[in-house]
Structures are given as C-alpha cells and as structure tokens.
Amino acid sequence: MSPAFKLFVYLCLCAGVQCIHHLSWLPCKFTDERMFVNTEGQHETDFQHRDSMLQFGKAGDPPVNPHAVTFLATGSKLELRQYLDSAEADNIDCELRRFRTENTSVLWPGLDPQEFSSWFKCTLKHTKELFTVVAFLRFPSSLPPAGEDHRNWPAISDGQMLTTTVTMVMKTETPLVQKGLGLPVTLHCQFVVDHKRPKVSVEWILQRRGERRKLFSSGETEGTGVDRKSLSRGVASYEVPYTKINLEGTYMCSVSVAPLSGTLDVGLQIFEAPRVSLSVTTPVIVPEGSEHKFSCQAENYYPLDVEFTWTETDPAVSAQRVGAPLPKTLKNVLLSSHRNNADGTYTLSAFFYIQATRQHSGKQFTCIVNHKLQRLPIKKNFVLIVEEPSSWGFYLVVTVILLSSLGLLFIMLPYLYRARRQSNQRKPY
Which residues contact 81 (CB under 8 A, 6 or more apart)? Predict the structure, then answer.
C-alpha cells in the first residue's frame, strides 16, 4: 500500500467517512436500570444515563474509550453496519437499553440449553430521518434469567467491555412520511434474524389521537396492507392505497421472534398546500373617498397552521436597485373563522378595509400566505387605482344627460310623426 493511499484512508477515517468497512464505532447513550427498595419498602427503578460506545470488531479488540461502557458487536451472521446506508457517524443517534424478555423460558435457537443470555436493544436513528434501525444484542451470561423482577441483573461497571452478537435487526427507511391527499404511500418495514425459518409474528397498529387500531396481524386471517408472501423474505411494509386525513398518525410495525420483540414507529403526516385567491382582479379602479373590503382566501389546506400577511408597496419605488424601501405590513388585517371542509381540510380568509385616497393610487397590495410544511410562501397581489370624484361626477352627469335625451326623444317621436302627417295633408296639390 502506497503512502499516499494510506494517508487517504487515514483522512477518511478521521473525517468519519462511513462505508461499512470504515465505521468502527459509534458513541451511544446507555440508559441503565438499577432496582432498589425505597423507604416505604416498595421496589423502584432508577434510570441512569451513562456514556457508552458501540464498537464493531472481533473478540479481544481493545476498547476505543477505556473509560466508557463498551458494547463490542462481534462478527456473526448479521452485520449491523450494512443497515446504516454508509451514513456518517455524526448523522447517527445511538441509544442502548437493557431488554426485558417477555418469555424467559424460550431459548434462542442455536444455543446450548446451559447457555444463558442478557439482552440489549440498540436503536440507531438518522438525524435527518432517513432511517431507524433496531438491533438486539446478546451478551452471554453465567447467570440464569432474572425473571420479571430484574433485580438480579448483573451490574455493569464503567470501562467494562461486553462482547455481544447481533441476533435480530429491524429497519424502516420511512420513519417520517409526508404526503398529500389522495396519494398511495408505502410505509417501509423489514427485519432479519440470525437463523433460518424463524417463527415470526408481525403486527401493524395505527395510533391516532390517543386511540390504537390494529391494521394487520400475521397470525390472523383478517387485515390487509401487508403482502403475506413477502414476510418470508423479511419484508413487512404496509401499503396505504389512498391517503386521507383520518389515516394520519403513528404507524407501529411490531416484529416478534420469541423471546425478542421490537417495534418501529413510522409517522404519516398529511400535507395539503392551500389554494390562494383574491376577492378582486388587478387593477382595481375605485373613486376617491369610497370604502372597500379586500379579501385573501386560503382554501383546502392541511394541517391547520397557516399565516397571512398583507403588504403595501409602491412598484415605481421598489423597482429601484438601491435604497428601495421595504414593503409596508398592514396592521388592520382581520381573520375570518376557520371553515372545516368535508375532506378534513380547512379554509380561512384574511381581509382589510380601506378608504381610498389619492395616496393609495398606484400602490400594490400583496397577500402572503405561509403554510406549516411549505418551503416558499404563496403570493397574490393587485394594484389599486384611485380616481378623482370630479371625473366620476362628470361621467355620471354626461351619462344621465344622454340617457335623458334618448328617453325624451323616444317620447316625442310619435308626436313628431303625427305632426308631419298633418302638415303633409294640408299641402295643396
């Protein structure tokens, strides 16, 4: 290996380039549990947050940080790093906890009946919500299972290294999905176990506004959304054919292989951008001194959070490259009440009143609508033209005179016609 290539590899490792072979460790938050009896004689649990490391390697490797609790994930049938999508260490949040097995009498396949195990659950989340990975780590123990009361859990000291193996991995590539109404969406969930033909149980549950609803269970004949044939390949994704407001919530993919059971949360958020319109079309011509109401309406949007701003600008001045003033924000803006639409979306209006003066003529009024999940605001504007009252009065007088003249002419026509006939009859032949 050339010195230049060695330097390149060293720099990559120092910069945290995370291909599967370069990622050697991750800092983690280890939440330990200590059972104790309080002064009233009752059992309580004290949760202790401790610094720890998730280290990848082989048995006998020295710890990266000798002062922290180190969980060494050694080579097994499952390679945890391949599920991290080459993410950088700075973009992965790692949490470790002890795992309480629901059924301590079940022996993990492939183990000797005399082998005991302590279990830990490792949760790895991408900081930009690209994935969530849950892995179960097995640590060989010389003690039998502690049962439901876990007071006999072996203590873990600072600087201790626990050599573990990865037995089951769950992953979702859609920890948060944002979709518009009426669209199909796939909520991703996959799993892999370290032995063939595991007895797997899969469930999907929707939690919405404090209510839980079972959507699918592999042990039941009812329930749709998951391709049952794909479960044998470790694919448990849930299909939502048509997004609606009442389908928004937290979807939980649960996978159980006794004695282990894990859950991944997948959030589905419905996002529908507002359709914005004005009550007038530009330009708006009004007489000086008249009062008018101008309204801006945002229709069929979701979720509820929407913000209105009305501004006033002078197009001639704002076109200047240097020294152009900022738009003036109107203060007398009022909001209508929210209107609930049949599909669960909302409609809201923002309006203001103005008594037209010559100072308003030529000004541009802009409605700016910001929605919660929309990157750029929506803008609608119109130009106001204010006419002098004299010109309007002149046109009105001329119009009245013309209409009156036409009316008088129609009234006089029959008389003029008869007078002409009589005049013609008196003429001598």
Answer: 20, 23, 56
Task: Write the single-letter amino acid at 257.
Answer: V
Q: Report the chain's terminal Cα–Cα distance, integer Å.
A: 135
Closest CA relative to residue 309, chosen from 360, 378, 355: 378
pTM of the model: 0.77
Are 330 and 288 spatial neighbours (Cβ–Cβ below 8 Å)?
no
355-384: pLDDT as tens digits: 999 999 999 999 999 998 788 999 999 999
